[in-house]
Write a structure and sequence with these properties.
four-stranded parallel sheet; FAD/NAD(P)-binding domain; three-stranded parallel sheet; 450 residues; single chain
């Protein structure tokens, strides 16, 4: 879009086009006043850094600590355990939330472990160097900033559309909260896993082999029309609702693995890219120094997550000079999950008119038709397509849209997704302020005289 418009007359850009684009896109201007906030750099030296305090991070930290290594755990949210307390399950014979509490207490009592919440792992660099980003004000009461965040529902009637079992957890939680789930629209022809059966037992309607043909509403959602997923989008039924919850599967968070050149491998069964353990990121000495754990490795069920994380923690601790550990891995019951069905276009046979309104990147308003146009115009490299369409260039850096965009581009180019590849992952993992990067190096300390 931007490559074809606002080209002429050149003099109109600065005074006419740019102000309109900035106002429409919500882009601001660089402030001229001095930043009132204060930024500091703090250095920590440890043997093993664990980024992420979900059940995998806690299991990996405990395993690494059992080797005698000095361990630091960073969790970006205000609580431990990730989404496991919501998903449920049992670990070592106890509810998962009890296991989290017990493990955190155990780690806190270890002299070689430090736990820190509200710190994001922003980037990984060679020489074993990583950056964490902490908003200190989040820990300081009484400074006038909001301390409590409310949990609100997106709507009283939530339609769930999915191609996998995990979305049924969302439907069951919405139902448990007392809200209505008019229907679960499952693109797969058959949905008979335990979670799907639990949804049916709760009285939730499940429609298989279906997709969303159209979402109705102007300033808010008022309903959806469902169609056959394999069809062209002819509406079979309209269902009133206030919100649509979409689930297309999970992608491992591979950003930190990729920052120093770690390579990825396409997992056909799960329809995602995951780290290739045989091609780990290497440091200045040519040796691998990053290990993934749990869902970051591509494990998606609790038992696999814990087993992978425990093994990763022991490997990291041993590589850092720790002793061999006989600590046992935490155990969870194996879950039965029905395979997902990759869905890149819904409905699959939709014509050009519908593809013009199929959004891939919800932040930059990139559509399926935009990616297909890029392919037709010769932008066959995923990096070129990214810049031509702005796919994945918003604040989320493609976390929601890149896999779908890659799949649509691959289909347009008539090639497999691994052949298309991925875009380059660069730090930081999520946006951080320039002030935090500069730290104390400003004003009279910008170039201190020693």
């Amino acid at each position: 879009f931007y490559y074809k418009t606002f080209m002429f007359p050149r003099v109109a850009w600065a005074r006419l086009f740019e102000p309109i684009v900035r106002q429409s896109a919500g882009l601001g201007r660089v402030p001229k006043e001095r930043d009132a906030d204060r930024y500091e750099h703090f250095y920590a030296h440890v043997d093993v850094l664990v980024i992420g305090g979900g059940v995998a991070g806690l299991a990996a930290a405990r395993a690494a600590a059992s080797t005698g290594a000095k361990v630091l755990v960073l969790e970006q949210t205000a609580h431990w355990g990730g989404r496991a307390p919501v998903d449920g399950g049992e670990v070592d014979g106890m509810p998962v939330e009890d296991w989290i509490e017990k493990t955190v207490e155990e780690l806190e009592n270890m002299g070689n472990v430090t736990l820190r919440k509200r710190i994001m792992g922003a980037g990984v660099y060679d020489h074993g160097y990583a950056i964490g980003y902490e908003r200190v004000a989040d820990h300081m009461p009484g400074d006038g900033r909001p301390r409590h965040r409310l949990c609100v529902s997106a709507g009283d009637r939530v339609v769930v559309v999915t191609n996998n079992d995990d979305a049924y957890r969302t439907a069951l939680e919405v139902h448990k909260a007392g809200l209505a789930v008019p229907v679960i629209v499952d693109a797969r022809e058959v949905a008979n896993g335990p979670l799907a059966e639990a949804a049916r037992a709760a009285g939730i309607r499940v429609e298989t082999g279906r997709g969303i043909a159209k979402v109705h509403g102007y300033k808010s959602v008022t309903g959806v029309s469902i169609s056959a997923q394999a069809g062209s989008g002819a509406a079979l039924e309209r269902i009133n609702c206030d919100a649509v919850a979409m689930s297309g599967g999970w992608s491992p968070v591979v950003h930190l693995w990729s920052h120093c050149g770690g390579k990825l491998i396409w997992d056909e069964a799960q329809a995602h890219f995951r780290p290739d353990p045989d091609r780990a990121p290497t440091s200045h000495d040519g040796k691998g120094f990053v290990v993934t754990a749990g869902s970051a490795s591509g494990a998606l069920v609790l038992a696999d997550v814990l087993a992978d994380a425990h093994a990763a923690g022991k490997v990291a601790g041993k590589a850092a000079g720790g002793k061999t550990s006989s600590a046992k891995a935490p155990e969870a019951e194996a879950e039965t999950m029905q395979p997902l069905e990759p869905v890149w276009i819904m409905p699959h046979g939709a014509g050009p008119d519908k593809r013009m309104k199929m959004w891939l990147d919800f932040q930059n308003d990139v559509k399926v038709s935009d990616v297909q146009l890029a392919a037709r115009e010769g932008y066959e490299s995923v990096e070129h397509t990214k810049r031509y369409t702005t796919l994945g260039m918003a604040n989320d850096q493609g976390k929601l849209s890149n896999i779908n965009g890659l799949a649509v581009l691959s289909e347009a180019l008539n090639q497999e997704i691994p052949s298309t590849g991925t875009t380059t992952f660069r730090p930081p993992y999520t946006p951080i302020s320039f002030g935090a990067i500069a730290g104390e190096a400003r004003h009279e300390l910008f170039q201190p005289v020693r």
